Amino acid sequence: MRDAYIVTSVRTPGCRRLKGAFKDTRPEDLLAHILKSAVEKTGNLEAKMIEDVMAGCSFPEAEQGLNIGRIANQLAGFPAEVSGATVNRFCSSGIEAIALASLRVMSGWSDVVIGAGVESMTYVPMGGNAPRPHPDWTKEHADLYTNMGITAENVANRYNVSREEQDEFAFNSQMKAVKAMKEGLFTEIVPTPATKFVKQEDGTMKKETFIQDFDDGIRESTTLAGLNKLRAVFAVNGSVTAGNSSQTTDGAAASVIMSGDMVKELGVTPIAKVKVYSTVGCQADEMGVGPRYAIPKVLEKAGLKIEDIGMFEINEAFASQAIYCCRELGIDLEKSMVNINGGAIALGHPLGCTGAKLCASLVSNMKKHGVKYGIESMCIGGGMGAAALFELCE
Ligand SMILES: CC(C)(COP(=O)(O)OP(=O)(O)OC[C@H]1O[C@@H](n2cnc3c(N)ncnc32)[C@H](O)[C@@H]1OP(=O)(O)O)[C@@H](O)C(=O)NCCC(=O)NCCS
After folding, report:
1. In 3D, which of 331, 211, 274 has the Cα closest to residue 9?
2. Is residue 379 flagged as an active site residue?
3. Is residue 161 within 6 Å of ligand 1 at its C-beta?
4. CA-nearest residue, atom 31 of ligand 1
5. Integer Cα distance of 242 and 246 in angstroms
6. Residue whose CA is closest, atom 44 of ligand 1?
7. Beta pairing class for 15-16 and 272-281
8. Under-50 pLDDT residues of the chain
């Protein structure tokens, strides 16, 4: 098989659902902007050279429905010949799209494909606008539809992850993000046009555009004492709170994947290779354990050990599950490079975008720190885990 090279990997800021900068910005516009930016940042690449755009989205309906992979690429001004698809595996949709794009290149079927992700949790709430669980199946098997917060409580209870550990993890996520923002380390962010509606003197509303260039969920004011005071939101006497859960967020991200031949032809400098991607199923009512099983699977396929991995992006769907997975995998949160600029607790988890967002963060940080191997991983609603291995280009 050929190699698949990531030559550009970028993201919009992540902004708070309903309260943040993108609350009036349609998801197609977020995705179109990041697709266009990814192409502009890729040396001599012209949009007509892209064969396909695979776009992850967890709830592909309403404003992000029909086929947002195609709609957004046309909105971005790509020629009609550039096809587009929507990919859904809930929280890993973005990396699933990157993996599919990479496979197309590895197989020799395509030379340039974009893998992307988008989610506006403002426009389409988690669960979708009209959830319809199977009425007969759910009588016996309600687990498949377990609320994500309850799955986090289950992981905390079954595997003894304390409230104190969760809050400390959340505090660290916020502090790492605060530091990274102050030091300008989020270089994978592309400033993104956002929409707001401003009331005019005559009482009418006018649509205006402004530029958003930072993640607006980061809370500098976070303290351990403040986190400890928050009430559990998913269970009476539970331990999962708004402070130690991922934030619900709007955002988009994209990676340009190329063959070695195209890299040479265009004279671009690749960042990393996509080496292995794998998924695994687990019990639905404790879906947060997913990375614990997905990461070893990827390592085995690559012939590597956990010690060979210099950097991780492990999605912080909830502190309880991220802590449990790291503990079981022997990843020392104090010493290892895990979510070095903070994770979804501080930066948000825009579901279908997250896999593509974590890829942009990971390869950018691998490059800065000269790390050879990096893994991104996440748990997935319904009971699954996904992991992807990247190798830095020399
Ligand atoms: C937990 C959850 C329900 C909270 O939703 P929310 O109430 O809208 O959350 P917010 O971020 O607005 O926080 C609510 C309040 O908690 C408090 N809070 C949150 N984070 C805090 C922190 N770090 N320090 C102190 N207080 C904090 C604040 O009072 C905040 O209100 P404010 O924004 O007006 O100051 C929501 O974030 C959620 O569902 N997360 C999980 C998403 C999920 O399941 N994703 C899929 C995973 S597989």
Report:
1. 274
2. yes
3. no
4. 242
5. 8
6. 148
7. unpaired
8. none
